[in-house]
Amino acid sequence: MDSMVRAHKYAVVTGASSGIGWELASILAREGYGLVLVARRTGPMRELADQLQQAHGVPSVVVGADLAAPEGVRTVVDELKTHQLDVEVLVNNAGFGLAGSFEALPAEQQMGMVDLNIRALTSLTRELVPGMVARRRGYVLNVASLAAFTPGPFMSVYYASKAYVLSFSTALHAELKGQGVTVTALCPGYTETEFAARAAEHQKARLFSGPMGTANARQVAEAGYQALKRGKPVVVPGFSNRFSAWFMPLAPLALRLRIAGYMNASEH
Ligand SMILES: NC(=O)c1ccc[n+]([C@@H]2O[C@H](COP(=O)([O-])OP(=O)(O)OC[C@H]3O[C@@H](n4cnc5c(N)ncnc54)[C@H](OP(=O)(O)O)[C@@H]3O)[C@@H](O)[C@H]2O)c1
């Protein structure tokens, strides 16, 4: 098993048990990458690993890890060391949002969001980028969001976490120029996945009934992969989302806060 595992170039995909991460893993397998699949639920990832082996003949290593926990990233890094894998692609996709007012949402879940969306993403990037730079070959794809382009009342921590991902990723993209390593921020609009169910646990935001339209996880993942391959710093899939990403930073702050606050507030 181990010699077969080592024969491939490798991609680590966090949040591979559903949604955009599942689709990104499938696309990377199609492109010939062996996969390191990371999330808390190992059942769906084992099923995915079998599918990828059958469809594309690529091996996968399934890593069950809670990336919001302090030892989560260490578990992934230890697994890479055990299998002696040099990672060519890192996809930091695991993340979640929570709709509701800041003071009412459970503090533990809010801090978990910071730990996952920001700390784990930064830490895994810090662990894997030095090897990529040493080999002068690597791609990092960080999943941000359209939410990265404006502050978002009633999803304040989530929007701020994605603004961090966009800022961090584009800065690192510039820093690594000429070293054979690119960093791409993928900024999807509302996409049909398990995201909404978790985000609406405390408050059903207007956004989740899809007034701005919904995207398909496969199309979002494909846009992310194409941008990664071209080494683009940012990709916003979908025309109306691209318009929003262009328009939002130009609009007055008061207007942005009203629009985002309206979309994130409860329908009732
Ligand atoms: N869907 C949208 O509308 C949308 C829009 C913009 C950006 N995004 C971003 O896209 C990314 C993927 O989300 P998605 O839409 O595909 O949602 P999803 O279907 O809920 O997928 C989220 C993934 O993250 C994993 N995850 C969650 N908590 C984790 C933890 N503590 N440790 C390890 N893995 C964890 C989940 O697996 P387990 O539960 O098995 O751990 C799952 O595989 C997220 O960063 C999200 O913020 C989504």
What does this structure look like?
The chain has 10 helices and 9 strands. It is α/β, with parallel strands linked by helices and 268 residues long. It has a single domain (2-264), classed as Rossmann fold (3-Layer(aba) Sandwich), CATH 3.40.50. The strands form 2 sheets. The chain has a 7-stranded parallel beta sheet with strand order 3-2-1-4-5-6-9, with helices on both faces. A two-stranded parallel sheet has the order 7-8. Residues 14-21, 39-41, 66-68, 93-97, 116, 143, 145, 188, 190-191, 193-195, 198 line the site of NADP nicotinamide-adenine-dinucleotide phosphate. This is SDR family oxidoreductase. The chain crosses the membrane at residues 139-160.
Could you name the key traits of this structure?
9 strands; single chain; 10 helices; seven-stranded parallel sheet; Rossmann fold; two-stranded parallel ribbon; 268 residues; alpha/beta; binds NADP nicotinamide-adenine-dinucleotide phosphate
